[in-house]
Amino acid sequence: EDPELNINHPYYDIARHGIIQLAGDDNSGRKVITFSCCRMPPSHQLNHTRLLEYLKYTLDQYVENDYTVVYFHYGLKSLNKPSLKWLQTAYKEFDRNYSVLPSLAFNIFLTISFSFPRYKKNLKALYVVHPTNFIKILWNIFKPLISHKFGKKITYLNYLGDLREHLKYDQLNIPQEVIRHDENLWRKQKGKLPPVVKVPPPRPPLPTQQFGVSLQYMKDKNKGELIPPVMKETVSYLKSKGLKVEGLFRRSASIQTIKDVQKLYNQGKSVNFDDYNDIHIPAVILKTFLRELPQPLLTFDCYDNILEITSVESCLRVTRCKQIIQELPEHNYVVLKYLMCFLHMVSQESIYNRMTASSLACVFGLNLIWPLKGTTSLSALVPVNLFTELLIDFYTNIFNSRTVPGE
């Protein structure tokens, strides 16, 4: 069970099984949600209607942004599979245009993702791991009835190792049952265990490195400048050309383009975002920069205090945020203040860009803070996003009492 899961969670009875989990980011910076069938208890012990509601509750926190789903099919058996009667009832609640989908193929997840356009639109990739032949046959039968555009989002992966080229494999919390099943498949098909992926030793960073190095390193290499160049340039560009762009920070961008821009920055070369003709590229670069810091901008030390923000009375939360922020190292404080000033500015244009403080918090929360070990759990999302929203909404109040030399 998730140690951060509170018994007062509205879906504690479902969440405690770990069927649905948050699992870091894919290679495009999109949040990854996993669905593990092997963690579903026997049907008589699980309320499938509640499971469906919990899945919707989880997706509701991401559907406004691009996201990815990994579906671990292994472990779906007659013992824990929803009954046909229940599935028929669920389908009646959905858009009839999609109710012809095979109920047994992708179980509950596909039921909801195909049936609600708002969940389907920003789902950019669905990886089905260890699919059975029955799933593939049924999919081919019903494929003509599904939109071609959505069909292209589905990728079958026969082995866990195939996930590595699509997302950050080490961030996935893969059930041991699935790992053992994968090893058995390798033995049967290839007569041996899957190869051990060798991680090359880290290279010393370049003097011009911007991604994956500490704030202190960038300060030392940039003549004492507190705001990293990549951050200053992306924020400056977005201020001038992106404040009124609808859905700013919600969209992803080409993986290769992002890698190319990162490479330019790491080599100390200039980047002209006008050349790319895509306002979402500097937006993704800014998020990527924050996410690849060795230590989160809000620091590991603040993680537990931030998670407790929901237990603070509403009228005292801004004051508590201010107290937590005052504990940050000076450099982190200055960079955070610079970022929040910009995000506050973005939120002031929400009538045009549709990015309120709440929307921005959903995008940036997990890029500002994460635990020292493992990835942020679903139960930590609410306090992390709430804390970030308060920083953006009450920027002037929270950051008005501390000035750092050189700021």
Automatic annotation (TrEMBL):
Residues 10-186 form the CRAL-TRIO domain. Residues 213-399 form the Rho-GAP domain. One of its GO terms (cellular component) is cytoplasm. One of its GO terms (biological process) is negative regulation of endocytic recycling. Keywords: GTPase activation. GO terms for molecular function: GTPase activator activity. This is RHG08 protein. It comes from Polioptila caerulea. The lineage of its organism: Eukaryota, Metazoa, Chordata, Craniata, Vertebrata.
